[in-house]
Amino acid sequence: MLRRNPSGHRPQVHESAYVDHTAILCGKVIVHENVFIGPYAVIRADEVDEHGEMEPIIIGAHSNIQDGVVIHSKSGAAVTIGERTSIAHRAIVHGPCTVGDDAFIGFNSVLFNCSIGAGCVVRHNAVVDGCDLPPGFYVPSTERIGAKTDLSTIPRVTVAASEFSEDVARTNNELVLGYKKLQNEF
């Protein structure tokens, strides 16, 4: 469902993207080409800053926002999801936040007030809060990364983790085409 926010902004969804009919996109949301947005995802850009302004939530081309994901932002801050990036089931991305290209964010993970570099992998039930994670870093499941975390203790993405991320992105890109064909059957 595409909804206008109280400021009057409506989501802009590229015609090649697939948005499940149970998902809710509200306000200043920009969805680029060949994006998959799964069931019960909520992407809501409706809060404003002290000047009554807001930045958009942008979902980059060929990315996937899986079932039950919540993307929102505090006080109109920007949220940008890069290209070919996977946000897995029930993850929360709360802005201000930037997730780079080719990243993987695992099930139930929470991102807040952070930047995730290109090619990073944040595994399941992890939290990244208040820090900038450089490209190519690997956050193990259940790990908490914050402003005081010594990033030299964080491992780099392995070939296997990178291949897994690429496979998830590829699979969800194929789902876009399949669901677009079925779209009028619902």
Written overview of the protein:
The chain has 186 residues and is mainly beta. The protein has one domain (2-185): UDP N-Acetylglucosamine Acyltransferase, domain 1. The protein has one helix at 159-182; strands at residues 2-3, 12-13, 18-19, 24-27, 29-31, 36-37, 42-45, 57-59, 64-65, 70-73, 79-81, 86-87, 92-99, 104-105, 110-116, 121-122, 127-129, 132-133, 138-139, 144-146. Strands 1, 2, 4, 5, 7, 8, 10, 11, 13, 15, 17, 18 and 20 form a 13-stranded parallel sheet that branches. The protein has a 7-stranded parallel sheet with strand order 3-6-9-12-14-16-19. The model has no long low-confidence stretch (mean pLDDT 95).
Summarize this entry quickly.
This is Isoleucine patch superfamily carbonic anhydrase/acetyltransferase protein. This protein is mostly beta strands and 186 residues long.
Low-confidence stretches: none
Q: Helicity level, as a percent range?
A: 10-25%
Please state the second-level CATH architecture: 3 Solenoid
**Mean model confidence by pLDDT:** 95
Main β-sheet, in a few words? 13 strands, parallel
Count of DSSP-assigned helices: 1
SSE pattern, N- to C-terminal = EEEEEEEEEEEEEEEEEEEEH
CATH top level is Mainly Beta
Question: What is the overall silhouette?
Answer: globular
Q: Bin the strand percentage.
A: 25-35%
CATH superfamily: Hexapeptide repeat proteins
Overall SS class: mainly beta
Number of strands: 20
What is the CATH topology classification name? UDP N-Acetylglucosamine Acyltransferase, domain 1
Instruction: State the oligomer.
Output: single chain
How far apart are the first and last residues' alpha carbons, in Å? 13 Å
| Count of structural domains | 1
Rg, Å, rounded: 16 Å
